[in-house]
Amino acid sequence: MSSLITPELVILDRDLGTDRATVIRTLATLVVQNGRATDVDALFADAWARESQTDTGIPGGLAIPHCRSEAVTVPTLVMARPNPGVDFGSDDGPADIIFFIAAPAGADQAHLALLSTLARSLIREDFTAALRSAPTPQAVVDLVNEALAPAAPAAAESDAATGTAAATSTGTAATTGTATSAPSTTEDKPVLIAVTACPTGIAHTYMAADALAAAAKRAGAELHVETQGSSSVTPVDPSVIGRASAVIFAVDVDVRDKNRFAGLPLVQAPVKRGIDEPDKMIAEALAAAKDPNARRVSGGGAEPATAGDDTRNEHIGQKLKRYLLTGVSYMIPFVAGGGLLIALGFLLAGYRITDNAGEIVLTNSLLNLPDGGLGQYLGAVAYVIGNASMGFLVPALAGYIAYAIADRPGIAVGFTAGAVALVMNAGFLGGLVGGLLAGFIAWAIGRINVPRWLRGLMPVVIIPLVGSIFASGLMIVLLGGPIAALMTGLSSWLNSLTGTSAVLLGLILGAMMAVDLGGPVNKVAYAFAVAGLSAGSFENQAPWAIMAAVMGAGMVPPLALALATLVDRKLFSAAERENGKAAWLLGAAFISEGAIPFAAADPLRVIPAGIVGSSITGAIIMGTGVTSQAPHGGFFVFFAIGNFGMFVLAILVGTIVSAGLVILLKRFVRRRPVADETTTTDVTAVEQGIPATV
Question: Mind listing the pLDDT tens digit for each residue in 24-62?
């Protein structure tokens, strides 16, 4: 097994700057320079994506940025002791000890166990104190190797020997060894279960497990922890679940098999809270166990909450937005595949293929081609498949909105309500309403306190049956007709948009795409465009024009920053110039995240410039009738874009305008002194909620 850390991978008492993105790129560069990864940009992108999900700073002046990446060839630790410290989002201030964990995408179980052991060692005060006083890089390496040594034999034993930590009646979590839940030595000790999980499953998963276990010991509780990390997972014994008083989900991803815990009082929060506030979470779980009105895991999973969200403080608007955007995110693959296939069908067989595609597919084959030849046949096949995929748009939207509200039991109820919305010609608005209706009805049914023997039937029989009757019944009897009328009115209004009205809509949509680069405003514009795609046709091309405006506007910010770094390199740091190279491809593919590093470092000058350019692009596209039948892909889906030349010209104009404004603002608009820039180095506001598709 190769060494995880060497003296060349240790940085002591150096000024690495105060911007965490720059620090992570510096550490990623060091990994590549030592031959342990192949691509700085790819490794940084993966690490930054993880950092964008949850701050990796933890109490005690520590930070553990980490990721799994295809670019990593050898599991690696980089340790930095920066001076001054760097803010990684911990409540107690900047981090003066940083461990960057870079694991290969397919890292073996033994290495993953060692990386997890290191993360757990960082909650030991004696270990962190020794790191702070280590005089040389070699001394740091020796300390790390000593911390890892006890885990090495156990880590290599078997797959069953990793992945789950058990806190028995002593309150101490086991290492990454087999999770055997020891019986309580005291009959009256409350029994709790905790599930911990983070997106990469390397660091926070296990640190939260240990922190909660220690807190349980202090509280006199018996805690059993299931770590759903990167290694194999050993589930908590069902007999323990039967004795448990409450369950804690400290997670940033979905909990696997949540229905095992149905009926148990639930405390749920991001995995980082399990590290930062373990005593509070244990206290909340003990209180919930005694509260008959406490939030509980419903018949098929957790109550309406996405993994890792502590939703108790959300107001109704935030919850609705979360539900709707969950539905849109699951709907997008149907739209993407279907829209591109339909466009491909038009490319191969012409636009009139809509008249007889079904007949061609049913009556012809590769051995019996239609009169139009192979192109007409393949075009008909592509159109039929794409049209079938697009047919799932409304049911998938409704089904996964219901899933966001009621978890797995809501899916069937939501899909049925969405299908009924199609029958009623209620379109995507019917899907939105039907999904919300189905989700809340399924959730309400799941809240009914039924005998334990009946709980197994709730998610698979009772909730789908009763929920579908009520949700779909209401859609047919009361809501479908009015919503269909509203959809007809909306379609007529969109068709009537010409000239100034269309340009104004393009300006608004373009600004929304650039104002927060993947945040809530951006998501609203993108969701509006994608949800309307199914209503587009050659008689009603307005939805396609809206999609083109949104996609083109979203491509402008990364392309503009790439151009600016090329035109005036001196205005940008070395790291930003490297980001600029990658931003060309990201922008061309409609991946707005390419502009995030620039906006994070200098939001007050970068974001306004992006808004202006994106608005201009959106206005030009809407004003000239450019269309897109694809919800994503940028220049790479040229065959799905009507008037592609004007699409390119609109993006080029917006890119040049934004790039010019960025350069002018950086040259002539003075930034505040670094000491006062508490907001420009904190990228949390820019990071939150960035979807992978925009």
Answer: 999 999 999 999 999 898 899 888 887 877 778 888 888
Q: How far apart are CA 387 and CA 462, in angstroms?
A: 33
Burial class (CB in 10 A: 0-12, 13-18, 19+), 368: exposed
Residue 563's Cα: distance from chain center in Å?
Answer: 28
pLDDT band, residue 622 (cuts 50/70/90): very high
Residue positions annotated with a catalytic role:
66, 198
Question: Which residue, among 184, 149, 179, has the nearest Cα to 163 in the 3D structure?
Answer: 179
Tokens 């980082």 identify what position? 272
Tokens of 685: 């506001």
Residue burial 521-560, b: 16+ Cβ < 10 Å; e: rest: ebbbbbbbbbbbbbbbeeeebbbbbbbbbbbbbbbbbbbb
User: At a CB cut-off of 8 Å and minimum separation 6, what does 492 contact?
Assistant: none
Judge whether 195 and 228 are in contact, CB under 8 Å: yes
- pLDDT tens for 575-609 read 788 888 888 988 888 877 678 778 877 888 899 99
Helix axes 316-349, 373-390, angle to 10 degrees: 170
Angle, CA 426 vertex, CA 423 and CA 430 arms, to 5° = 110
Q: How many CB atoms lie within 10 A of CB 675?
A: 6
CA dihedral 103, 106, 107, 110 (to 10 degrees): 160
Query: Could you give the strand order of the β-sheet that contains 266-269, starting from the edge strand earlier in sequence?
Result: 222-227, 191-197, 246-251, 266-269
Q: Six-digit token pair at 183?
A: 């019986």
Indicate the DSSP class of residue 656. Answer: H
Q: How many CB atoms lie within 10 A of CB 88?
A: 22
CA distances from 54 to 49, 97, 626 (A): 9, 18, 38
